[in-house]
């Protein structure tokens, strides 16, 4: 067997506590992120068995899915949401877990606050009862979502039983064109591989396009790994990664940092290491993307027309059902289609760089009268930066308002629901039927595409507005 290892192999193998012949590995978990939706039953299981949380210092809880994004100082009106939030608070207190609930300065979306406070670190294993835990892979971590029974397992043992996935490397070589963001790169890859194209694999992203990205851009790409069926995605840490992590509250300091850096600097794929599958794309072929259907793989370059059924995965009947739900037709252009809502936020695009990009487009313009816009920061740290950098002043001048942190309209488990039949250009991660509200129609896009739609009231190529600024 070759001694050359992939980044994924290095991290996985170093965390195997026990290998079961013809079975899964018992994997040690460095960080366990917890939120209010998938944890109540897990904690109840601990209580019924009289078991404590083995490593409360490695467990971090925040409220995000059910939180309202206005008037967070008031009691939560929805009884189910209120009960789940209260249960998380009580369980965190009972088991001695760090808890950042509503009103706490560190509160925010779990996959936003983890990196912000240095909980997310290179070479770590990270799990959470949420599919988009893959976000943390941007740091060279193995991060993936788990189910409720697995949440209980990790709470009780700090380990999880997992079959080791196959490995895939996706290379995007070359520089990205103007107006093309990390979100567009991810949507492009999913459109090429389909929503099942990486099933059974853990993906490493490599190539110039990813090396050039900021850490926040890398988080967006890794966040969407799950949408092509992958178990997770990761990017080898580099100087950008190390600079981002250092100095944060939960990051190692002093001699501990020196020791960590010695390990972190070994986290790369060895020359000659073999992947089970490898794919390469040319960055110059990617343009701003937008989805037109009911899964993240149904995406096209914004200048393109909706494809015909014969070139789409899933068969004609399924394809026609999707287009009927969206009230779109084969061969139609996406540009110019009227929209009703714009959502900027989520664990995919709720970071400060996303708000900077959105604000750059709307600066000097006005929100379209026909558009309702929900701008939701991913955390209080993001919210503060929006205000401190003067972005809020620009947004308000353009007719926008800023809401409070939370998952918001990404999955509509709170009051932020897109009405039936309405179109929303959304920077979130899923466009399934009813995902953003019963009967809602979602067009996934980048913050730049969302901003262009917000000021024109229709699907608009952001490059056209960027050219006007330069003229």
How would you summarize the topology of this molecule?
Elements: H1 7-13, E1 16-19, E2 25-28, E3 31-34, H2 40-49, E4 59-62, H3 79-95, E5 98-100, H4 110-116, E6 125-128, E7 142-145, H5 148-157, E8 159-162, E9 166-173, H6 182-193, E10 201-206, H7 208-212, H8 215-223, E11 232-234, H9 239-245, H10 254-264, E12 277-282, E13 289-291, E14 299-301, H11 316-326, E15 341-344, H12 346-349, H13 352-362, E16 372-375, H14 380-388, H15 391-397, E17 423-426, E18 441-444, H16 447-456, H17 462-470
Parallel strand pairs: 3-4, 3-6, 4-5, 6-7, 9-10, 9-12, 10-11, 15-16, 15-17, 17-18
Antiparallel strand pairs: 1-2, 2-8, 13-14
Task: Describe this structure as you would to a colleague.
With 471 residues, the chain is an alpha/beta fold. It folds into three domains: 7-163, Aconitase, domain 3; 166-237 and 268-285, Aconitase, Domain 2 (3-Layer(aba) Sandwich), CATH 3.40.1060; 292-470, Aconitase, domain 3 (2-Layer Sandwich), CATH 3.30.499. The protein has 17 helices and 18 strands. It has helices at 7-13, 40-49, 79-95, 110-116, 148-157, 182-193, 208-212, 215-223, 239-245, 254-264, 316-326, 346-349, 352-362, 380-388, 391-397, 447-456, 462-470; strands at residues 16-19, 25-28, 31-34, 59-62, 98-100, 125-128, 142-145, 159-162, 166-173, 201-206, 232-234, 277-282, 289-291, 299-301, 341-344, 372-375, 423-426, 441-444. The strands form five sheets. Strands 5-4-3-6-7 form a five-stranded parallel beta sheet. Strands 11-10-9-12 form a four-stranded parallel beta sheet. It has a four-stranded parallel beta sheet with strand order 16-15-17-18, covered by helices on one side. Helix 2 links the parallel strand 3 and strand 4. Helix 13 runs parallel beside helix 16. The protein is globular, with a radius of gyration of 22 Å. The model has no long low-confidence stretch (mean pLDDT 96). It catalyses: (2R,3S)-3-isopropylmalate = (2S)-2-isopropylmalate. Heterodimer of LeuC and LeuD. Catalyzes the isomerization between 2-isopropylmalate and 3-isopropylmalate, via the formation of 2-isopropylmaleate. Its EC number is 4.2.1.33. This is 3-isopropylmalate dehydratase large subunit.
């Amino acid at each position: 067997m070759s001694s050359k290892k992939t980044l994924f192999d290095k991290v996985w193998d170093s965390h195997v506590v026990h290998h079961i012949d013809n079975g899964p590995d018992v994997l040690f978990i460095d960080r366990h992120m917890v939120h209010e939706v998938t944890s109540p039953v897990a904690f109840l299981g601990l209580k019924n068995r009289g078991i404590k949380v083995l490593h409360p210092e490695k467990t971090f809880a925040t409220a995000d899915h059910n939180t309202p994004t206005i008037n967070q100082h008031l009691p939560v009106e929805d009884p189910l949401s209120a009960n789940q939030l209260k249960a998380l608070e009580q369980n965190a207190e009972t088991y001695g877990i760090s808890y950042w609930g509503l009103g706490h300065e560190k509160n925010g979306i779990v996959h936003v606050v983890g990196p912000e406070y240095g909980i997310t670190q290179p070479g770590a294993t990270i799990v959470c009862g949420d599919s988009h835990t893959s976000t943390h892979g941007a740091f060279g971590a193995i991060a993936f979502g788990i189910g409720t029974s697995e949440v209980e397992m990790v709470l009780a043992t700090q380990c999880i039983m997992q079959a080791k996935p196959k490995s895939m490397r996706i290379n995007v070589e070359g520089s990205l064109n103007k107006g093309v963001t990390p979100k567009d790169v991810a949507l492009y890859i999913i459109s090429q591989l389909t929503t099942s194209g990486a099933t059974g694999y853990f993906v490493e992203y490599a190539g110039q396009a990813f090396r050039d990205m900021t850490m926040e851009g890398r988080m967006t790409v890794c966040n969407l790994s799950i949408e092509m069926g992958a178990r997770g995605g990761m990017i080898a840490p580099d100087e950008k990664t190390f600079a981002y992590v250092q100095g944060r509250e939960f990051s190692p300091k002093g001699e501990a940092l020196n020791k960590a850096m010695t390990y972190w600097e070994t986290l790369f794929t060895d020359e000659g290491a073999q992947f089970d599958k490898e794919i390469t794309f040319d960055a110059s072929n990617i343009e701003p993307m937008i989805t037109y259907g009911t899964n993240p793989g149904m995406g096209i370059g914004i200048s393109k027309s909706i494809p015909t059924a014969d070139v789409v995965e899933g068969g004609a009947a399924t394809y026609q059902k999707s287009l009927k739900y969206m009230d779109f037709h084969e061969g139609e252009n996406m540009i110019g289609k009227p929209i009703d809502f714009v959502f900027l936020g989520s664990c995919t695009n709720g970071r400060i760089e996303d708000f900077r990009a959105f604000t750059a487009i709307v600066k000097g313009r006005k929100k379209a009268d026909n558009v309702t816009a929900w701008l939701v920061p991913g955390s209080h740290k993001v919210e503060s930066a929006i205000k401190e950098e003067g972005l809020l002043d620009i947004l308000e001048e353009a007719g926008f308002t800023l809401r409070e942190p939370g998952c918001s309209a990404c999955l509509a488990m709170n009051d932020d629901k897109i009405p039936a039949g309405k179109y929303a250009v959304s920077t979130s991660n899923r466009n399934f039927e009813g995902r953003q509200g019963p009967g809602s129609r979602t067009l996934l896009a980048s913050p730049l595409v969302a901003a262009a739609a917000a000021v024109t009231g229709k699907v608009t190529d952001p490059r056209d507005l960027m050219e006007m600024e330069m003229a």
